[in-house]
């Protein structure tokens, strides 16, 4: 059983799956799904599509040069069946898979070390920007707080001048103390008018 690779995305194409396209020059292209076949027909290069293995390898996101890949090469000559050879091959395939996963994880860790530094720098920049904006907000809140205090002082000084005691109110809604003051001032005016005559 031979497991082919998709020409576009690089995924495994198992027997009985996918599609095969044969060009006029007798070159065969295997595709794992219709998405890959359509992108090939649109003449899009797999190296520039973010979801393909070719893109990941060319942009340093996966291992590109490794000796383990030599085991995956196709061999056109089929050897004669030998039980010991099949057992050795299966054991070697398991070992190759273990080595491959170990190397992939090591490569991923190395990539992520650089990413951690980049993320830390971005976080520091964001904190600096936030602290700058927080300082600006503090200044603006301090300014608004001083304005509020000034308004409160103005209100309290007006209250102290008037000194309206809580008492029974008239039907007009004016407290009785204010009405008394008006009567007093009216009375003084009347007295002043009388004195002038």
In short:
This is TRASH domain-containing protein. By secondary structure, the chain is mainly α.
Describe this structure in words.
The structure is a single chain. This protein is mainly alpha-helical and 197 residues long. The protein has a domain at 1-62: Roll (Ribosomal Protein L24e, Chain: T), CATH 2.30.170.20. The chain has 4 helices and 4 strands. It has a two-stranded antiparallel sheet with strand order 1-2. Strands 3-4 form a two-stranded antiparallel sheet. The longest helix is centred in the middle third of the chain and has 80 residues, at 83-162. It starts with a strand and ends with a helix. The mean pLDDT is 77.
Structural class: mainly alpha
**Major sheet size, sense and barrel closure:** 2 strands, antiparallel
What's the Cα radius of gyration? 44 Å
Describe the global form: elongated
Which architecture of the domain at 1-62 does the CATH hierarchy give at level 2? Answer: Roll
Strand order of the largest sheet: 1-2
What's the name of the CATH homologous superfamily of the domain at 1-62?
A: Ribosomal protein L24
CATH class of the domain at 1-62: Mainly Beta
Can you give the helix content as a percent range?
55-70%
- Please provide the ordered H/E string of secondary-structure elements: EEEEHHHH
Distance between the termini: 131 Å
Q: Please state the average pLDDT score.
A: 77
In the predicted model, the low-confidence regions spanning at least 5 consecutive residues are: none
Number of strands: 4
Q: What is the fold named in CATH at topology level of the domain at 1-62?
A: Ribosomal Protein L24e, Chain: T
Strand-residue proportion? 5-15%
Count of DSSP-assigned helices: 4
């Amino acid at each position: 059983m031979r497991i082919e690779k998709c020409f576009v995305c690089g995924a495994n194409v198992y027997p009985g799956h996918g599609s095969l396209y044969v060009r006029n020059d007798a070159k065969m292209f295997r595709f794992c799904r219709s998405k890959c076949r359509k992108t090939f027909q649109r003449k899009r290069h797999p190296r520039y599509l973010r979801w393909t293995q070719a893109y990941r390898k060319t942009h340093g996101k996966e291992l590109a040069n490794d000796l383990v890949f030599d085991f995956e090469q196709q061999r056109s000559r089929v050897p004669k069946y030998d039980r010991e050879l099949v057992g050795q091959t299966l054991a070697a395939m398991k070992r190759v898979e273990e080595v491959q996963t170990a190397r992939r994880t090591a490569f991923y860790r190395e990539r992520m070390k650089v990413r951690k530094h980049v993320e830390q720098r971005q976080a520091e920049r964001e904190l600096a920007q936030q602290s700058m904006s927080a300082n600006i907000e503090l200044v603006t809140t301090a300014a608004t707080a001083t304005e509020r205090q000034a308004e409160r002082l103005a209100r309290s000084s007006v209250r102290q001048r008037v000194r309206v005691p809580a008492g029974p109110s008239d039907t007009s809604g004016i407290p009785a103390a204010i009405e008394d003051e008006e009567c007093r001032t009216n009375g003084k005016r009347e007295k002043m008018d009388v004195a002038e005559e």
